[in-house]
Amino acid sequence: MKEKKEKKMNEEEEIVERKRQEEIAERKRQEEITERKHQEEIQIAERRRQEEIQMEERRRREEQEYEEWKRKEKYEERKRKDEMEFELQKIRLGAEGRFSNSVANHTNEAKVRTSSLDAKI
Length: 121
Hints:
By secondary structure, this protein is mainly α. It has one domain (1-120). Helices cover 98% and strands 0% of the residues. It is rod-shaped. The N and C termini lie far apart (176 Å).
């Protein structure tokens, strides 16, 4: 009988020990799952941070490209205006030159007529 009691106690101790070992294993498994989730969250957060950095860099590059495009457009517009102004000046000067030449010719013709009249007198 004593042997039966000892056997039963041993079995109970084994059951208790097995339960304890199972609980330890389950806690360890849960800790591993928790750690894996934590690492995944860290990786996801890092990927998001990298994506945000890349998006910000892309936005900055696009903004710089746009500003450069605007500067070039302003430069080209000023250049076109200057060229048009230069052409207008040439036209004005040409017209003034023709007018001046026309006035000078009329003045010279008048002088010639006057001097020929003077010569006749």
